[in-house]
Design brief:
With about 260 residues, the chain is an alpha/beta fold. Helix content is about 30%, strand content about 30%. α4 runs antiparallel to α6. The longest helix is centred in the middle third of the chain and has 16 residues.
């Protein structure tokens, strides 16, 4: 049995997917979800093989939901027109259904995923020329991660950061960020409401955040220039930025050059 979950805030859209899936008895819909919050819980509970995911949803969008899942399942996106998102889909061979879609287009997406899910025949140890249908490694998760990296550069994805903390989901507007700090395999996001961890890299945030507002002052720090109250000399060619919160953020020699340029000093 192939387990599937439908995540879409439109009841009619969920109904259409259910109807079209009746032609595939090997696929069982274990749950329908109306938003990303419910979708995360359902994925953690059922560990589906495949999800049908809308992008434009209330609370958190489909991309933000996927970012919060450590091992995302295979995804077939269902979405209204979004030029940037579609470029991201096509670049990473993740299939998508552009609303409104018909049964033929739906079947094409399902057949494509079923072919990938089954994998090509592989040699067994029974002897030369003998093959079986054991599944090949599935690249859906790698495709999903690559897609999220591409989609994160969309302007609609750059105004907030979604994190999980204590089992809850928190949405952080970028203007609330004081600074970001490297923390092992995570980035610690410091805000006036505390610090939160995100499973991303400093390079990722350096690329997606507005470079007129956020400056990487040090290999381990990115700060919001709106939070700077003064810049003090420190050891050798380095400096310290003193923020409105009283936090001190290191500034390397190269970071000082970038900071001065953004501040117009």
């Amino acid at each position: 049995m192939i387990k599937a979950i439908i995540i879409d805030d439109e009841p009619l859209a969920r109904l259409i997917v259910q109807e079209y899936l009746q032609a595939y008895p090997e696929i069982t819909v274990v749950q329908e979800c109306f938003d990303g919050f419910e979708g995360i819980k359902a994925i953690q509970q059922h560990h589906p093989d495949l999800i049908f995911l809308d992008i434009q949803m209330p609370k958190i969008n489909g991309f933000e939901m996927l970012e919060l899942i450590e091992e995302p399942p295979a995804v077939i996106f269902t979405t209204a027109f979004d030029e940037y998102a579609i470029r991201a889909f096509e670049a990473h061979a993740v299939d998508y259904l552009l609303k409104p879609f018909n049964k033929q287009r739906f079947e094409k997406a399902i057949r494509k995923w079923l072919d990938q899910h089954a994998g090509p025949p592989q040699q067994t140890h029974a002897g030369p020329g003998t093959a079986n249908s054991s599944p090949a490694p599935n690249h859906s998760r790698e495709n999903t991660r690559a897609l999220l990296e591409t989609a994160s550069h969309s302007p609609s994805q750059q105004h907030r950061i979604v994190v999980k903390t204590g089992g809850k989901i928190k949405i952080i507007p970028v203007e609330d960020i004081h600074y970001l700090e490297a923390s092992d395999d995570y980035v610690k996001i410091h805000t006036h409401n505390g610090a939160f961890l995100k499973n991303k890299t400093m390079s990722y945030f350096e690329q997606v955040l507005d470079n007129t507002q956020f400056v990487r002052t040090h290999r381990s720090y990115i700060l919001n220039v709106q939070q700077v109250t003064r810049i003090d000399p420190y050891e050798k060619d380095s400096h310290l930025c003193i923020l409105q919160s009283g936090a001190q953020v290191p500034v390397s020699k190269a970071g000082y050059v970038k900071l001065r340029a953004v501040l117009g000093l």
